[in-house]
Amino acid sequence: MVGNLKPDMDRARRSFLELLGAGAISVASGNPPQVVGQPAAGSTKLPAGPPASVMAIAAHPGDAFFAMGAPVALAVSLGGQGTFLSLSLGERGSPSIPAAQYGALQRDASNRAAQMLGAQTAFLGYPDGEIPVNDDAKFAVCDLIRQHKPTVIITHWKGSWHKDHRACHEIVSDAIFYAALPAIVRQHPAHTVSKLFCADNWEDADGFRPDTYLDVTPIFDRWYEACALFPMWRGENGFRYNDYYRSRAVESGCLSGAQHAVALASSPDQLVRHIPSL
Predict the structure, then answer these.
(1) What's 183's DSSP letter?
(2) Across the chain, how many H-helices and E-strands are there?
(3) Which among 37, 36, 32 is positioned nearest to 13, based on CA atoms?
(4) What is d(CA 156, CA 198) in angstroms, rounded to the nearest whole number?
(5) Do residues 219 and 119 lie in contact, with contact meaning Cβ atoms separated by under 8 Å?
(6) Where are the domains of the chain?
(7) Which listed CATH number (3.20.20.70, 3.40.50.10320, 3.10.20.30, 3.10.300.10) goes with 2-22+51-266?
(8) E strands, 182-268, where?
(9) 147 near 188, Cβ under 8 Å?
């Protein structure tokens, strides 16, 4: 089965890397991607392009860094820009720490982790568990999209048992639409996002089917260290995020011929119809 899927995986990986300005990546036929400077025999350098700007938009800071952070870190390492936008602070995520205190811990961890990865942070401050699906939220995200001008956005898959994650997916889909319309006058000019991807998240597994595997081996250790700054990374709140996401990176690497990779799904709700799909 894997052998039959490999040509499609290679095409998807190439397309995503091109969006990341992947002149810094070399793909060897039948082998995992290689970092340029250590090319494998017979490798072919992908067309160089401008470095990408990748924005992770998540319901909570942990989701932004754990499920979406590695592609952001890779974009920054290739000379692009990275932004982590959290719609809430996830302040109600601890069974023992008061919400206000835990929210402050989450914000601090996000800022320090982003600094470690060379990225920026933004927060909208909606109550954890009560992220509203309305035009105020959609235009708030629209404004940040126009401000940061991402080439690629990564967000939650719509099939989730977590209401905040479902809300985030709907907000982002409409915010991308609003951000691209010049007729909608806001503080910043219109900006069109090239591609929307959904992340592999343990809470968003209903119907999630990846079509893109991204080799994140060059930045894996740095991303892992950044995630360790969060108070819940090692299972303090009951779920071992560190073991889960490390295991998933290894599994996705096995499926795509890399040491570590992340699985992404092109959103079926992609609104930028004139951009060629992967």
Answers:
(1) T
(2) 8, 10
(3) 32
(4) 5
(5) no
(6) 2-22+51-266
(7) 3.40.50.10320
(8) 195-199, 212-215, 261-266
(9) yes
Pseudo-torsion of CA 140, 109, 266, 5, nearest 10°?
180
Would you place residue 49 in the very low, low, confident or very high pLDDT band (cuts 50, 70, 90)? low
For the chain, percent helix, then strand, then coil, each to nearest 5? Answer: 40, 15, 40
Place of tokens 């009951």: 238
* Separation between Cα atoms, residue 174 and residue 137, nearest integer Å: 10
Query: 269 pLDDT exceeds 70?
Result: no
- Over residues 67-110, the pLDDT tens digits come to 999 999 999 999 999 999 999 999 999 999 999 999 999 999 99
Q: pLDDT band for position 237 (50/70/90)?
A: confident
Handedness of CA 267, 60, 110, 96 (dihedral sign): negative
| Residue predicted with more confidence, 146 or 14 | 146
